Amino acid sequence: MPCSICDDTGWKPIDVDGVRRVTRCDCWRAKVGDALMAGARIPGRYQRCDLAQFQAYNDKLKQALGHAQRLADAFPVVDRGLFLLGPPGVGKTHLAVAVLRYVIRSKGARGVFYDTRELLKLIRSTYDPSNRTEERDVLRPVMEAELLVLDDLGAERTTDWVDETLNLIVNTRYSERRITIFTSNYDLIPDETDPRSLLFRVGARMLSRLHEMCDFLHVDGADYREMPPNGTVEDLVMLWKRGRAKDKPPLPTRSGGPIRAQLREPRLERELKWPGGKAGS
């Protein structure tokens, strides 16, 4: 059925100070939002992630939710993205996708989601002569998206090609001042030899860029994947408290604001040279 307001023209009449004008109809905005959402590559598991339904049952989760909400409300008039750190299953991806969905629906922004390993796999596939997709066709929407969510940074096996490709993406978005939300399971341990360290996984040069691009926040909570069927927030609180009681080293934290890593002397890395062809092989 055609829209009862605009008859599918996409424009609806309004009165402004007694003058008859037209503006975009809500049905048009909904269609644009649907098209943008379809191109955002949000996995099916996260299609319904929403800031309003996020269970913030401790101070760290409340801080992360508040920061995510402020970013979503202010977008696109924002200078910095987010880097959400914490163990698996605590809601980092939920928050990142919730912001992405919000700005697409409410602001009409062009946004895209990628798991880091899936993105690298897709780029590698373009090197196959039988694949007609070119590398620039994969990279262009990643570089140009008004909001990019890059999930699980650091989970990929480190190689020169991985470092070069990710540095290209990060440096391009940094230079163009495009907002990015990252998530990672790795800690801000200032030891480039520790495999648990984000510094070890991405290198000093990229980590420095990330600190300029993003506010770093720890997301601390229970692994929701361990929650029993039909579990409630009370179950999450119990799991979280049980986990805190275990004898394990805590995540490095700083109260009262974003985290800043204290890095050792940066390791020597060759500068990225991007001629416009393949990032590596």
Short note summarizing the structure:
This protein has nine helices and seven strands. It is of the alpha/beta class.
Structural shape:
globular
Helix-and-strand structural type: alpha/beta
**Tally of extended strands?**
7
Largest sheet: 5 strands, parallel
| CATH architecture classification name | 3-Layer(aba) Sandwich
SSE order, one letter for each helix or strand = EEHHEHEHHEHEHHEH
What is the chains' assembly state? single chain
Number of helices: 9
State the low-pLDDT regions, or none: 250-257, 259-281
What percent strand? Answer: 5-15%
Instruction: Provide the helix percentage.
Output: 25-40%
What fold name goes in the CATH topology slot?
Answer: Rossmann fold
Computed Rg: 21 Å
Tell me about this structure.
- The chain is of the alpha/beta class and 281 residues long.
- The protein has a single domain (25-245), classed as P-loop containing nucleotide triphosphate hydrolases (Rossmann fold, 3-Layer(aba) Sandwich).
- The protein has nine helices and seven strands, in the order ββααβαβααβαβααβα.
- The strands form two sheets. A five-stranded parallel beta sheet has the order 4-5-6-3-7, with helices on both faces. Strands 1-2 form a two-stranded antiparallel ribbon.
- Helix 6 (160-175) links the parallel strand 5 and strand 6.
- The radius of gyration is 21 Å and the shape is globular.
